[in-house]
Amino acid sequence: MTNVSALESHLNEMGITAKAHPSTRLNGYGVREWTLTRGTSSKTYALVSGGTSSLPLPAVASLIEMRLPLLAWDDYIDDELQATLRRSGVQYVDLAGNAWLEFDHVLINISGREDPRPKGSGIRKLTRKSPETRGVNPFSANRNQVIFALLAWPDLWDASSRTLAEVAGVSVGLAHETAALLKESGLAAKSTRYRPGGLLDRWANGFSEVTVPRLGRWHFYGNSDVGRLRSVGPIYVSGEAAARDRLKPTELIVYTSDLRPDPDRPSLPVLNRWRKDAPTTDKAHNVIVRQQFWTPRVDTHDDVDGLVRDAPWPLVYADLLASKDPRVQEVAQDWRSSHV
Q1: C-alpha–C-alpha distance, residues 240 and 243, integer Å
Q2: Cα–Cα distance for residue pair 335/324, rounded to 1 Å
Q3: Does the structure show a pLDDT above 50 at 274?
Q4: Residue 214's pLDDT is what?
Q5: How far apart are CA 120 and CA 264, in angstroms?
Q6: pLDDT tens digits, residue range 168-215?
Q7: Cα separation of 298 and 292, whole Å?
Q8: Do 294 and 167 meet the contact criterion of CB atoms below 8 Å apart?
Q9: CA distance 114 to 78
Q10: Cβ(63)–Cβ(26) under 8 Å?
């Protein structure tokens, strides 16, 4: 097991001081806590030591469910375990130099350091593989939000991880990791980003199945005329309604930042007289309201009636592409060609 003093010394090299607290009992398990401090920023973690953990797995699962910040540490944490820890929201550091620490204004994200222990010790040495080969899905629901932001605003490729995270609506660590995965797999290359089968198409083809089910959403029946839409806050129109200059929309998809009813203001359904009940039994929902998952940047889209705006073009493309109507599929390709 890693020597605690060696780990403290390693953290000191990063400008971080570590303070150990007496063991406490949480959910029936004995847990040791550490407070990491750098400048005016600090955070207290429950320590998960020895790589896979000195705590039993049920204890780790219990602490994750409690949303208690966890910190894993060992002599060496390989790339597969790093990915597993990230997906679980468990931060980590090892003596090889790999680290993911994120609290307040502190972000340390280091990967790719090899096992410092001698060869032949029975420990597998770190090897670099493509994300798919390592079992890491670059197109998971949360990573898809990062990809959307990068496609919609290409200047974010050169922005800080914090800026990218704010726009994509994810953590700084996930934003950094996703951009790194895309670059590692070759999907970030500007020359291939928009080629058939490239980043845009791979993201758009999976958006409706991977990301949409995770979004809060409502379904209604009502008038889908964009020109008659009313709202008390910014809303974004996507799908057929955004491509209204190319076809007559039969469906309206709207993204909004707030799906929760507000007693102090009329809701979208009330303002637009949408209803839950179907006018006929065989008619599909023609108004779909989804949770807006990104933070708008300086709006460069044309305003319609002030608060009603077209969604960023990659999102419109993905929503058009998800239609089973061949007519809309054709418009999707036309939309793609006009924006790439």
Answers
A1: 5
A2: 16
A3: yes
A4: 83
A5: 69
A6: 998 888 899 899 888 877 888 887 788 877 899 989 988 988 888 888
A7: 16
A8: yes
A9: 8
A10: yes
pTM score, whole prediction:
0.59
How far is the CA of 101 from the CAs of 8, 107, 248, in angstroms? 14, 6, 50
What are the chain's domains?
4-110 (3.40.1350), 141-210 (no CATH), 215-339 (no CATH)
- At 142-168, the pLDDT tens digits run 899 999 999 999 999 999 989 999 999
Is residue 234 within 8 A of residue 307, CB to CB? The reply is yes
Largest CA distance in the chain: 73
Stretch 39-60: mean pLDDT: 66
What crossing angle do the helices spanning 141-152 and 199-210 adopt, rounded to 10°? 140
For residue 129, give every residue at least 6 positions away whose Cβ sits within 8 Å of its Cβ, in sequence order, or none. Answer: 79
- Dist CA 120 CA 305 (whole Å): 69
Judge residue 121's burial from the number of C-beta atoms within 10 Å of its C-beta, 0-12 exposed, 13-18 middle, 19 or more buried: exposed
